[in-house]
Amino acid sequence: MEPTPAYRTLDATAIRALIASLPTIAARLGGASAQWQVREVSDGNLNNVFLVGGPSGEVCFKQSLPHVRVDPSWKMPLDRTFFEAEWLRAIQPLTGGLTTEFLHYDPDLYVLIVESLSGHTVLRTALMQGAHWPGVAPRIGMFVAHATFGTSLLARPFEDVFTARRLFAANLALTRITLDLVLDDPYRDHPRNHWHDPALTPIVLDIRSSAATLLAVENLRRRFLSQPQALLHGDLHTGSIMSTADDTRVIDGEFAVYGPIGFDCGMFVGNLVLHYFATPDRAARQATLHDIAAFWHRFHDEFLALWISHDTPPPGTLHPLAYGPAADVARQRFMDEIMADTIGFAGVEIIRRIIGYAHTADFDTIAASHQRATCRAGALGFAYYVLEHLDQVRTMADFLRHLAEHDGTGLPGPG
Amino acid sequence: MEPTPAYRTLDATAIRALIASLPTIAARLGGASAQWQVREVSDGNLNNVFLVGGPSGEVCFKQSLPHVRVDPSWKMPLDRTFFEAEWLRAIQPLTGGLTTEFLHYDPDLYVLIVESLSGHTVLRTALMQGAHWPGVAPRIGMFVAHATFGTSLLARPFEDVFTARRLFAANLALTRITLDLVLDDPYRDHPRNHWHDPALTPIVLDIRSSAATLLAVENLRRRFLSQPQALLHGDLHTGSIMSTADDTRVIDGEFAVYGPIGFDCGMFVGNLVLHYFATPDRAARQATLHDIAAFWHRFHDEFLALWISHDTPPPGTLHPLAYGPAADVARQRFMDEIMADTIGFAGVEIIRRIIGYAHTADFDTIAASHQRATCRAGALGFAYYVLEHLDQVRTMADFLRHLAEHDGTGLPGPG
Ligand SMILES: Nc1ncnc2c1ncn2[C@@H]1O[C@H](COP(=O)(O)OP(=O)(O)OP(=O)(O)O)[C@@H](O)[C@H]1O
Ligand SMILES: Nc1ncnc2c1ncn2[C@@H]1O[C@H](COP(=O)(O)OP(=O)(O)OP(=O)(O)O)[C@@H](O)[C@H]1O
């Protein structure tokens, strides 16, 4: 997609002028536009993000660039803010206060304006600073349950679901990124892959020669592209969440696409596992194990509760034909499928964040480089173990037990 | 969708005028348009179909009506010929001579013009007349293998597949018909259901109170709407096939949608089973068992052959990461999934053709009404048995063994 003729990358002055032309948003900021503060907060890989503040309020301004922000040679279509805007419009009514408020979308400039979060910290940063907010993980469980249930065939007539699938199936550029960076590159030689520590290389080579692991990845790749169960966030890592102790918001839905519900669950769990291995502190590790369990249980229970409460009157296209104990068994089977996906996608997320293109900052808190290498090897070895033994790591309880047993050397501990 | 202002249902005179305005097609017919013969051949439920012939050739003219042809009170959008045209354009390059040639589509009049088949008989009619052409079933196996493999992620980059899925996900009206008539109505009280023979009523009541059967149907319904593996024909019964002994064509792709490959296989197999139960003659039954096996094996072997020959160089998005014996196991698992879908969808197709809205003519060859009832009960009982025991009917060999054992009374025979 070529930039539309009207498109240009806006600087602070142009941002002020644009917002001044939008009465509701201008009123929200208050005062004269010349005095508005424009503060760049871009820290992701892709877009320009600014906070624009006036005497009475602040908004968050996001604009797509015709390339990856951190690599101008990597061209990219502008429509990603369009998909983020559509995602927000679809998901906001379902998830109450767990996202930001949608304020404006400009289709020529590919600008999205949303509520600015004040006092909120990106969850990954907060975790790295040692914050522990036990409410966050279950809130994300609630978020995923409501967002996925509400966009699925369980809640809506298939006509609505097909129409939404059509819209998000146009999100090709970002879906291609997920496919390549998460589900392909790390499993073969590719110039985008990188890792500093030579200690990781033997594990990488083992992963790439493990038929069981590669087949698990092939299966996840097929499931990612062929199980349009619900509208996914598509990139639900700890950098896509901003929080305080009491208030949690999911941001940055530009990767939105219909896919398997366990993909969102797995991204979140995988990033908690990265944090787990990046904290050698035993108590912090225990807290993270607890977060993963709390996320999963809240998601699971809430999703099932929505499903059961929808039984009468029959709502979506997949209204039940059978009732009673047999129907419970079928529902449990569906939840087990989501659980298996969660475990698998968590595995590939961990691997790609250590040996792929886009690493995470979690391990930067560890000063000594050999210790960083050991922790990374621990995470990588754990993910490898999980993917190679999916038939043995069948439940979140199995997953957490193995995680607790991994002592950070990349080998299962004594138990 | 409201008829476009230009839309009107064309009579013979208007059909001649339209074709006269299309030089290539007019040349194909030859002579003066006033002399062209226009012969109505509509026998389906939905559309007007005419054969238009001149001194040098003939074409087949199909136009959507704003309602179901056989029930003008049932309103229906006109765009179904659009989807048939798109299906034909997508599938024709993949399947060689196994469809009709696409000649013209008129988006205002919702008219599709294709090659006219001469000397071909609708397969259901031919089967009812006692024809047995052993080449047909394996040709349909070839057709399904090439059409589905070639539109799947195994053969094409995901961007192409997502784009095609988007197009066909707009085929809402006909997908709704499949959902309601095949996967919902027969399993509950609905005014569209009907069956003549009171002897069938107890079986219907049993089906509707069998939790295992209802859960199997729920699962098939979810799979139909949530496994967009490949572009389906969507209505591959024996009335959608025209054949001679040597030349077989698949027509009428207006139900085209992305879905599970086993759906197309199951429709075809289910309709052969209906024919099986409609022929009390033992030799004819043997021949039908043979047809089902020949269809399945040709489909299976051809699909696998396409897949394996595509291994080098990697083609579609789902190019393999793993090679060797483990990859064979994964491929076999995928084929087993198609087989399970085939068995399940065959089951629901048989049931809906006996107790749902749209019956088939197969049983009309049986003169005595009590014998017709017995044969229908046999088919219904067989489908019920299969759906209730999917865990025991896991392979096409199991399916065929059970079919051979069913003696037409609706109860398994002595074996
Ligand atoms: N609504 C908001 N209020 C305050 N700050 C925000 C808001 N949205 C984003 N930010 C800040 O801007 C940063 C970048 O935002 P975001 O993650 O949406 O950008 P991105 O370029 O799409 O990132 P990525 O490359 O991870 O997709 C966030 O990490 C956060 O610090
Ligand atoms: N290309 C063709 N050449 C000759 N006859 C044809 C051709 N296509 C269709 N016919 C005849 O017209 C009849 C109706 O065609 P078709 O099945 O496409 O219509 P339909 O109304 O869409 O049916 P349905 O309700 O089953 O979807 C066929 O059964 C066949 O007898």
From TrEMBL, chains A, B:
Pfam family for this entry, one: APH
EC number(s) reported in the record: 2.7.1.100
Ranges where the Aminoglycoside phosphotransferase domain occurs: 38-289
UniProt cross-references to SUPFAM superfamilies, sorted A to Z: Protein kinase-like (PK-like)
Superkingdom field: Bacteria
Keywords linked to the UniProt accession: ATP-binding, Kinase, Nucleotide-binding, Transferase
Catalytic class of the enzyme: transferase
Molecular function, one GO term: S-methyl-5-thioribose kinase activity
Keyword Kinase attributed: yes
Subunit structure, interactors included: Homodimer.
Family designation: Belongs to the methylthioribose kinase family.
PANTHER family named in the record: METHYLTHIORIBOSE KINASE (PTHR34273)
Protein name: S-methyl-5-thioribose kinase
